[in-house]
Design a protein that fits this description.
The chain has two helices and five strands. It has one domain. The N and C termini lie far apart (29 Å). By secondary structure, the protein is α+β, with helices and mostly antiparallel strands. The relative contact order is 0.16. The protein is globular, with a radius of gyration of 14 Å. A hairpin with a 2-residue loop joins strand 2 and strand 3. Strands 1-2-3-4-5 form a five-stranded mixed beta sheet.
Length: 99
Amino acid sequence: MTKRLLEAGLLVGRIARECFPEGYLVSHELDASAARAETDRVMADPQVTDVFEAAFAHCGLLSRADVVRKVGPEVVDEPYRLQWRLICLSPSSSTRDCS
């Protein structure tokens, strides 16, 4: 069962990247610090509108987001004032807004 869930998750990720073709895939699957640093860097880039597998940490917990999508105004000097929408994907037939 676990192998099928993993395969389904990988398939959903590939489909998501087809739905949001301008998106950026954060790498560093095994290095949380590098993934968080890469997430910060790409979310500060005004050209990036969608980020896959963005990494966030809070209170010692790490989370990887399926998709975060820029929805706020473009403010290059203060990237964290931008608004981002968290999109959760699942192997089902729909997506849901997780924010």
